[in-house]
Design goal:
The protein is an alpha+beta fold and 157 residues long. The protein has four helices and six strands; from the N terminus they run αβαββαβββα. The longest helix has 24 residues. It is flat and about 70 Å long.
Length: 157
């Protein structure tokens, strides 16, 4: 009995050590520009105006509204669903806005990295109580699909 327990503990310790080692190794995409964001795309040979036009169209089709933009960024928002509110907003399931912040970074060789970071915002628009939190999520697929669509449209032109 004691041998079985010791063996199980050793296996559990080895699995935990392997899991820890894997989490410290990181992934190759994190070393690329935009690798720590929720989604990123590199666009070549396109003007800022073209990039902005396509980005606004893709986010608009996904129910996001442009809230602000500057020389190197764009910010979009959409009302959170009830599920978003329960996940990001608290117990009552209301009042959450999903905010998308895109940063445009010019690289050498007429390339641009468009990097997306997602935030949940409670009490959006309230100058005193607004609370913005960067989303930490395992499933970044929906946001990466948005960025992939931007890349596909721009690189197909």
């Amino acid at each position: 009995m004691k041998t079985t327990i010791r063996t199980a503990l050793k296996i559990a310790a080895l699995l935990l050590a392997a899991l820890c080692a894997g989490s410290f190794a990181g992934c190759a995409s994190s070393k690329q520009p935009g690798g720590y964001s929720h989604g990123a795309v590199t666009v070549k040979n396109r003007s800022d105006a073209e990039i902005r036009q396509v980005t606004k169209a893709v986010f608009g089709e996904d129910q996001y509204a442009l809230k602000s933009e500057g020389a190197d960024y764009m910010q979009f928002e959409r009302p959170g669903s009830r599920r978003d509110a329960l996940k990001w907003g608290g117990w009552f399931g209301e009042g959450v806005v999903i905010r998308a912040k895109l940063r445009m970074t010019r690289l050498a060789g007429d390339s641009c990295v468009l990097q997306l970071d997602m935030y949940s915002v409670r009490d959006a628009g309230d100058s005193v109580f607004e609370s913005e939190s960067r989303m930490i999520m395992a499933n970044k697929r929906p946001y990466r699909q948005l960025m992939d669509e931007i890349g596909k449209r721009l690189n197909a032109k």
